[in-house]
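Researcher: I'm preparing a figure for a lab meeting and need a structural model of a single chain. I don't have an experimental structure, so a prediction will have to do for now. The sequence is pasted below. Please return the structure as tokens so I can convert it later.
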Amino acid sequence: MDFSSQVASQLNAIAILPEGIVVITLLLVLIGDLIFGRKSASWLPYVAIGGLLVSVVALILGWDNPNPQSFLGSFVGDNLSIVFRIIVALSAAITITMTITYIENTGTALSEFICILLTATLGGMFLCGASELVMIFVSLEMLSISSYLMTGYMKRDPRSNEAALKYLLIGAASSAIFLYGLSLLYGLSGGLTDINAIASSIEVGTGLESLGLAIALVFVIAGIAFKISAVPFHQWTPDVYEGSPTPVVAFLSVGSKAAGFAIAIRLLATAFNPMGEQWQFIFTALAILSMVLGNVVALAQTSMKRMLAYSSIGQAGFVMIGLVANSQAGYSSMIFYLFIYLFMNLGAFTCIILFALRTGTDKISDYAGLYQKDPLLTLGLSLCLLSLGGIPPLAGFFGKIYIFWAGWQSGLYGLVLTALVTSVISIYYYIRVVKMMVVKEPQEMSEVVKRYPPVRWNLPGMRAMQVSLVLLVVATSLIGILSNPVVTVANNSVISSSVLESAILKGSVAQHAPDAVVKNIAINK
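Model: Understood. Here is the structure written out token by token.
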């Protein structure tokens, strides 16, 4: 084998074909804008959406790839990374449908925003499959810096500038902490950067090595907790959600969070697998704090975006139950719940954008009596909010049942009971909005709704938003009832992952250890 073919086999570009499609799409949008200028705004968003959907098709065709490693082993395109990359790519495609009219109404350039969004998508997709420390950090920074730029994209809006500044300052601090944790891993492993090699070289002992690994674990979890909006690393979330452009918030709530959970699974199941009890204890505390604070504080919110900000904090707590379970069912339930969360959360944000475009407000009290002026928007927002609350037979109910059952099987009784109580609390503030829209009498209609403009879907960009809203609402309504294929895919992605093999085995051994002890006692007697 000559040198060029050897390098080609080691790089294995086929494994990163979906990311390559996103790069080509990004270049097409950039070059199209340079050549055609503002006239290209009518068709460039659809080029971006098409490129992302082709990338999703490439990801599906790459299922069960016999040679998933790429970039000399620094990226693994296995089935586990494929499901997370699909979630990131789909969230970006749906976000672009919300963006067209929203950005055009602000008078800012649309193509530049799409380019930044595609860059963030690329960073998130690489982060989902990164298995080397440098690759992890570069992907994380690509996602983070693009997110900072999108957050402050509305330069004339003081709230957007304030949100971007807060996000940048807190994000830079969390990135530095995360990087310090990775550097400790690098030093403790004797200069290794591959997380699988680090896992096999590090053993939990006593003295300074054990202390160094514990500090590395705390610092890495702090960086991950910031990315997934877990308490107490959530301070940026309400302000960024309220001040940022709403499409940016939609992407951060799903795409960025999914990438954060993907890298959490890889790092904790490999490099920190010897410290399973320690990180499970930390994430148990983070999950309880997130569920309680997120859902309780959401009760007092008057802004829809701030309410969904605290709701996303609570939802992150629910997803962490699957992570703490550290079992096949736990990881599968995480993937299933995040996939459902993609549809119901983006559906809710699509409705909020539509209402804001027509009224210029996002106050909850201004939604009073909306059903009489816009039945489609009311139906869509009601179904998505009820699904987020876990009302049967919507998708969110089945997602919560699956993730709570996985936690119960792993013996996380206190965590699951806390989740059940906080989930009941969350239903109150979701139903409050639905009641506001549907139950109000004509004389109780808000002044904003009284001046509600005629619903017109033939405006530029509105048809794409209408199509995406219908698809999101249908998926939110039916995907729970028809969930068997999604659950099967989630299970297969976990079972076939070599990354999770040792972690699941260790978790099942620990789970069944008491039964084994009882059997040994009986045999000895």
